[in-house]
Specification:
about 200 residues; Rossmann fold; about 50% helix; about 15% strand; globular
Length: about 200
């Protein structure tokens, strides 16, 4: 029953984000985490992936973050999403030492737990999470489950936001994914692990 009420609360947040967009994060976190998206044939970034990474590059250029973790494994087309994102960041002037790749994750849930392990080793507990606006709701929840205080940093330049039909499609997809995560991963039913565990 608790999962049902939590899912309803998340769906309300999702509808609010659909209407107005989630609020951007306040300053304070020194690390940005960029969630992966599709790599298309030829190892090229999809427009969605590029929008997320370019948003993170602007955060770095403005001094809001000092490190960027790119997360995403190999999907239908190699190389890994993380490798493609790292290349874009380098082309935007982000130095190698500021880019931390996580190349194994195949889902938002995987990213949350694999990145959480990296963050705990770094001694970092909060991040700004760069992804599509409607994905922010589920992504922030997943990272919270992994013991990370994640602040939404929506990439409004993504076609998943500015193209109305794509935004509507993502609303439907994210609504289903939120309910799935609540029941499949039992989100909200357990306490996050202590750092380093």
């Amino acid at each position: 029953m608790r999962a049902i009420f939590q899912s309803l609360g998340d769906l309300i947040k999702l509808l609010e984000a659909y209407r107005n967009g989630p609020p951007s994060s306040p300053d304070g976190a020194e690390v940005a985490v960029v969630l992966g998206a599709q790599v298309v044939r030829g190892g090229r970034p999809s427009a969605t992936l590029r929008a997320r990474v370019e948003h993170a590059a602007r955060l770095y250029a403005s001094g809001r973050v000092r490190k960027i973790i790119v997360t995403g494994g190999v999907g239908e087309n190699p190389p890994s999403e993380a490798e493609v994102m790292a290349d874009i960041l380098r082309s935007r002037g982000v130095p190698d030492e500021a880019i931390l790749p996580e190349k194994e994750a195949l889902s938002t849930w995987d990213s949350a737990w694999l990145v959480a392990d990296m963050l705990h080793r770094m001694g970092t507990e909060s991040v700004v999470l760069v992804t599509d606006p409607l994905h922010c709701v589920r992504a922030v929840e997943a990272f919270g489950e992994a013991g990370v205080r994640a602040l939404a940093e929506p990439a409004y330049g993504s076609p998943m936001w500015y193209r109305k039909w794509r935004r509507t499609g993502q609303l439907v997809r994210e609504a289903g994914a939120i309910v799935w995560y609540r029941f499949r991963h039992r989100m909200g039913s357990r306490r996050p692990p202590a750092p380093g565990t």
